[in-house]
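Local shape tokens:
==================
===
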Amino acid sequence: MKLKFFKTIIIAFFFNQMNAQSIARVENIKIHSKTLNQEREILIYTPVDYDWRVNECFNVIYVFDSQNREFFDYTNSIVSFLPNNGKSFIVVGITSPFIEEIDYGRNNDFLPVLATDESIKRYGKYSGNAGNFVNYVESEVIPYINSNYRTLNQNIAVGHSLGASFILYSLIKKPNLFQNYIAISPNLAYDDDKLSKELIYLDYTKINNQTFIYISNADEGIEYWKEWKPARDRVYSFFKDSLKNKNITVEIAEFPNNNHLNTFPPSLNNALQFYFKNIQKNQDSELSKEKFEVTIRVKVSEKGDIVYITGNQPNLGDWNPNKNEMKKISELEREIVLKIQSPAQFKFTKGSWETELQVVGTYNNVIIKPEMKKEFEFEIAVDK
């Protein structure tokens, strides 16, 4: 079955490339943020053939500091080349540009209100708006993406330096905003180790779903920024020795031969490889507790076709290819009514994996979110 499926993907991929139906693209979207009272720009990468793959949904990677396009471009470029990843992602770049008219910069977004004289002297007026910024991400950016793109529930936040500090701050303030955190060289020491202390004393029972936290460092704290090392050592020790929560997986990586900036590529590669190998499959298996009744119809190519549906949960047959036979409602239509959990992933067969049917608008599993509507219609691709 796997070999046949792989061949189908390759054939379909090159067929669509030759016919130039669509390409990967990056869109620039402007949002007038009520939360920030500013106009902001986000970047949205959609994978190749996103427009054709209308019956597939995608997890989302949110990349902070994307006014520096290197972070955004590297992330959406590298994902497809890493091992153990069989999926495509939507990548969203969240920008924090300097706004000259109001003298507002990225540190305003990433730093909360500061308390110590030393921090106030160091960062000055470029701080204090992290609370509003996390609200902007929660109430405006993520809802926009979920409303306008076919998204799944497992998102990833990627940040570097104070961007990494911010995504850990968001974990503290809104523990279920993201499911995965890739914090590359975060500053844990600002404002008298404020962030490191809050991470240690956070009530991690507030995290509802399986969550992955990745933290890395370069050579910070050795030759420069000496205060960074003791702050991160305390956090590392807590995560390694004290945190006991079955919902949380923590991976720590150190790159002492890299400097603060050039640690981004190896850290991101390492984090995503760990995620693909150890986290993704488990998170993908998470389903909603609630079941939704839906009607699923499929248009077939032959009048006599007997069609089965099989998928990722008991009511879909748990990937048994001949358990759920669909009802014939016309010569070329088959239908089934089921109560299923979200997100539902499934395929159609004629009773075995050797007779798996390819659905128009997907290379992989059909994916639906049954909470969105009650009826879904599909069409079997005709071999040419």
Summary: The radius of gyration is 23 Å.
